[in-house]
Amino acid sequence: MGAPTTETTPAAAPPPTTRGRGRSRGARALPWAVLALWIAVLALAGPLAGKLADAQQNRAVDYLPVSADSTQVARLQDALPGGEATELVVVYHRDGGLTAADRDKAAAQIAGIARAHRLTGGTPHAVPSHGDTLMYPVASTGPGQDDAARNAFVTDVRDRAEGGDGLTALVGGPGALNTDMKEVYSSLDGPLLYTTVAVVAVLLILIYRSPLLWLLPLLVAGVADAAAMAGVYGLHQAFGVTVTGQSQGVMTILVFGAGTDYALLLVARYREELRRIQRPYEAMRAALRGCGPAILASSGTVAVGLLCLLAADLNSSRGMGPIAAVGVLCALLAMTTLLPALLVLLGRRVFWPLVPAYGSEVPRPRGLFAAMGGSAARRPAAVLATGAVLLGALALGTLALPGSLRNDDAFTSAPESVAAMRILAEADPGRSAQPITVMSPTGRTGEVLAAVRGTEGVASAERGRSGGGWTEVSVTAQAPPESAGETATIHALRAELDGPYGAHVGGPGAQQADLAATSTRDRWVVVPLVLAAVLLILVALLRSLVAPLLLVVAVIAVWGAALGIGGLVFGPLFGFAGTDPGLPLLSFVFLVALGVDYGIFLMHRMREESLAGAAPAAAAVTALRTTGGVIASAGLVLAATFSVLVNMPLVSLVEMGFVIAVGVLLDTFLVRIYLVTSASVALRERVWWPGRLSRPRTGP
Rounded distance, CA 631 to CA 619, Å? Predict the structure, then answer.
């Protein structure tokens, strides 16, 4: 197609009427009113969006439900005298052994820290581990519960603990780990947003080949992201929705990914309407009437699927549902109101240099997708069987998924707190283990201590602080921290103590065990709920039972294959030592919801062709030819936006981004093009059973 810069019309427009002048005034006023409304929304949303990062809760215990044993322990510990203390461990290490000068230097630095801060218990004493490592436990109640003060305390201790000349000085412990975790999450917002914008911009430039058009979806997505962040902050303030760095990052990805998908559909239909309708305002009305129902149905399906996460017990997963749904709905609102307004105000010139002139012919679609659909239609059974075997083989990779992710392995590049604990683990595994914490009713502490010491797997147990009717018991396990052996010890302690003594067992290892157990429970509850909700929506939209079942089975197969590919690469290629416990559930929800989203576009068009009288094979090939390009573009954009997470410094985000990106690509270029098409051809009219389209007809 050429690149005209002026519009041509096949015939002169009819003379305007009074009604036409009124409609023309409305056509000019409405886009400006929509633009003004969104400017007001952005002005109100901006300050609230900026507060969302401060509302994040990224500790492991924040992810757990209130009923979890380790959550009870954490709350009881906070209520004890000194419970608000920030606890650190200063580690000094020299390969080959510490010298006397090293020990003197360490003692002097710790004394300086004690003088500068109000440390719990005064100046701490060194706890030696063999001859090459020295550990000083440092704790202070001075910072209180204020995050900024705690971070400042950790930073100052790190500044004062200096190594040099072969001596390593590192600061670890729970307080340092929390500071490092918060710093990593707070650093995600900028790089995540900039990388996402860059990736989407490049793809839109390649798709539209216009110096201006690509900017509009990107600008509108940015506005939608700000509105979504403000909305999520409101949910957090009003209903206590748990906001994590992971959920906020995924929401941004969804806003740009799903929002750009909706923009692709709308712009493609608008370009088509501009060729047959002279006025941009009227062309946009026709475009919204044509593709609006499909966009509404697909976004509604995604939102409903995500909201099923409200049934999860894990706070992080339960919060992810409404947060991601808010992102999808804000993207929907912006792309169906603000984007149309901008397109109408800018007129046809926004498409320059490929301007769709009024009265010009619509270019014939490329034959690529028709050829793909034809190959699937010629031998549907063979194509379907080959695809099913391939997906099944890939799904076997789930057997190679590494075990649950430990706190020490949560970062792609270990921060100082993790490096410090690793040095301690190598020097003295028993002493470096983060203790299991037992909270005992004070009146029964003696009995609890005796029961704990007699439990298999316990190396030692010591009485700690008391207050409010509870006493803290610090337990050292024989097994390394967050290992299968420590988990077995935790279960043994709970079996011994929960019933007879009313004690609670917590600590970092117990929190990880509770995370894994709660994630397993959530999968059994949420997965059937998502499948049922999505299936019901598809039945209502497609007026069939077989077609919805086909789409649901297809997205389940995609999820299994994508997770299997993850199992094949996470350990050998990425070097990850574990899998985030929430990965199977969250990847399932996103892939099912987003996969069905594309299925709606394809099957809805297939149903339209069947209603128009097309034979099953012809309807399938025509639907693929007309929607394949848009679905492929949308799939590439969505996969690319989720792949941005692969560059993030947290293993959980890398794993989620990889699995979802791979799943979207499999769904777009294998399942939609070949498997759904071949299954539809093989089933013929039966794909619409029991609807009226399921009645047999003649023809190929």
Answer: 17
3-state secondary structure 62-131: HHCCCCCHHHHHHHHHHHCCCCCCEEEEEEEECCCCCCHHHHHHHHHHHHHHHHHCCECCCCCCCEEECC
Whose tokens are 């993030």? That residue is 648
Helix (H, G, I), strand (E, B) or coil at 149: helix
| Residue partners of 500: CB distance under 8 A and separation at least 6 | 451
Q: Which of 368, 366, 363, 365 is nearest to 1 (CA)?
A: 363
Q: Which two tokens stand for residue 118?
A: 């109000």
689: phi then psi, degrees, rounded to nearest 5: -65, 140
**Cα 165 to the center of its chain, rounded Å:** 43
pLDDT single digits (tens) 50-67: 888 888 877 777 788 888
Summarised one tens digit per residue, pLDDT across range 568-591 is: 999 999 989 889 988 999 999 999
- How many CB atoms are located within 10 Å of the residue 319 CB? 28
Q: Global pTM?
A: 0.84
pLDDT tens digits along 237-261: 999 898 988 888 889 999 998 899 8
Residue 438 predicted with pLDDT over 80: yes
What is the C-alpha to C-alpha distance for residues 683 and 616, in angstroms, rounded to an integer? Answer: 9
Cis status, amide bond into 690, omega within 30 of 0: yes
DSSP class of residue 506 equals E
Kindly indicate the confidence band of residue 617, based on its pLDDT and cuts at 50, 70 and 90.
Answer: confident
CA dist., res. 232 & res. 226, Å (int): 10
